[in-house]
Design brief:
Blueprint: H1 2-16, H2 20-59, E1 60-63, E2 66-71, E3 74-79, H3 81-87, E4 94-96, E5 101-103, E6 110-112
Antiparallel strand pairs: 1-2, 2-3, 4-5, 5-6
Helix pairs in contact: 1-2
């Protein structure tokens, strides 16, 4: 980043000139900028996650004791209603052929076969 390069350059000049107090101030500014950069990165990641959850919530439909994602020509599911309602985790349910039902491996909720 250009600002870090500039601060480094100014810091080097101050250090060479024996301006130790000003050099320490430059180092503090660099540290604060790095903290701010990390915070921005964390907020961008959180923002992305929240947008994905919002999109998921908008496309999530509750039918036959499970959740389904209905997007244009795509239908996915079933997803466990307990995991979504309680933890906002979209857990795909697995089909058990011997009992002809769906089962959540995480919370062990089961539902009878749905169409």
């Amino acid at each position: 980043m250009a600002i870090f390069d500039e601060l480094k350059s100014v810091g080097k000049i101050l250090q060479e000139a024996g301006k130790i107090e000003q050099y320490k101030q430059i180092l503090e500014v660099q540290e604060k900028l790095l903290e701010m950069q990390k915070k921005i990165t964390d907020l961008e990641s959180e923002n992305k996650d929240l947008k994905e959850k919002l999109t998921t919530k908008e496309n999530l439909k509750y039918r036959n004791n499970a959740y389904w994602i209905d997007e244009k020509d795509k239908k996915e599911g079933p997803f466990c209603s307990r995991c979504w309602d309680d933890e906002k985790k979209l857990m795909r349910m697995h089909y058990l052929t011997h009992s002809q039902s769906y089962y959540c491996c995480k919370c062990r909720v089961g539902i009878s076969k749905v169409e």
